[in-house]
Amino acid sequence: MKAILALEDGLVFDGQAFGEEGEAVGEVVFNTSMTGYQEILTDPSYKGQIVTMTYPHIGNYGVNSADVESFKPHVEGFVVRELSPVVSNYRAEMSLDQYLKKNKILAIEGIDTRMLTKHLRDFGAKKGIISTVDLDKRRLIKRAKNSASIVGVDLVKEVTCKKPYDFTEGLLQGFEWPQEAAKKDKQYFAVCVDGGIKFNILRKLNHHGFRVKVVPASTSAEEILALKPHGVFYSNGPGDPEPVRYLWGNMQKLVGKVPIFGICLGHQMLGLALGAKTFKLKFGHRGGNQPVMDMKTRQVEITAQNHGFCVDEKTLPKDVEVTHINLNDKTLEGIRHKKHPVFSVQYHPETSPGPHDSDYLFGRFYRMVDEGVW
Question: Which of 8, 27, 180, 350 is catalytic?
Fold first, then answer.
């Protein structure tokens, strides 16, 4: 079936639909990972976005029920150069096309994703629409232009859990990489505030010696402290961090009272809680090959990332230290408080999908709780 992708600035692509039929509206972004499309589809951080994969051939290893990062896909739409007609992997349970149909996600193939990616790099992420029911290009451009922006919108409330739950699942069999520390003899209790958390983050916390309870993003600081956690973790999540005031406002009340570790949106929330500002990146960082430097050791990590907003380094207070910097554009990737047991990173150390260079951060969280060192 014919499908059209139209951007708000007038760029239009003709292609073929797969997955669900109908229409999808969202911010069009690109991800440079070669693999991991299933984890990308189910990452709650992509709520409100149409994701373009830059790797040209997608779907060849199918989809399985073990590698999902949440209970369902959260992308608004999916864009690929070529959908593989063949699925060949012993773990595959269905094709990508079948999976998207099952979850009512509209996708388009057969377009020049290289051209689309270059356009987004040059002119920034754009609002867009994919349609199989309205093929009038002028009308679609106008509708994309008039669609809602993710700026100033609280998308966290759409992906956070509804009630607290315990998570006891360990790492998937065969994924216990040699550089990862074995589970510690002494177990600590971590409350994880769910801004759109990925399952593998929770598996990593369990693996690194934590008993985990996940709570909704709206959980108050008083309710968190009443659980008597040894540490509090703030997760990844979608969209603009600034309007999610209840989340970083409660986080602000916890600084100095309990050890805190934040990833991605949790990093942005920590920046806001400590008095810094955030801003929207031109096209964001999304993919499994982002180079980040540890400013203390000068060691470079190849990291997985997915964010469109960033903490403004210039607005950090004097008692907050920069720990990591992105080597592509020199944006802020990590901070720590000089007095309180608090640190965060903008990237994803949970390796799903992505490299394993940053696994040590979960061990750092454990040591912060266990030894008071961060």
Answer: 350
pTM of the model: 0.95
Catalytic residue among 74, 267, 324, 348: 348
Q: What does the alpha-carbon distance between residue 277 and residue 30 come to, in Å, rounded to a whole number? A: 25
Q: Out of 8, 69, 207, 264, which one is annotated catalytic? A: 264
Q: How far apart are CA 164 and CA 167, in angstroms?
A: 10
**Other beta carbons less than 10 A from residue 13's beta carbon:** 20
Given CATH 3.50.30.20, say whether it is the number of domain 2-146: yes
Per-residue pLDDT of 156-212, as tens digits, reads 999 999 999 999 998 876 655 554 555 567 899 999 999 999 999 999 999 999 999
Tell me the CATH number of domain 156-371, given options 3.40.50.880, 3.40.50.720, 3.20.20.70, 3.40.1190.20: 3.40.50.880
Query: Is the C-alpha dihedral spanning 301, 304, 308, 309 positive or negative?
Result: negative
Q: Decide: 48 and 77 in contact? Cβ < 8 Å.
A: no
Residue 350 a catalytic site member = yes
Clarify whether 264 is annotated catalytic: yes
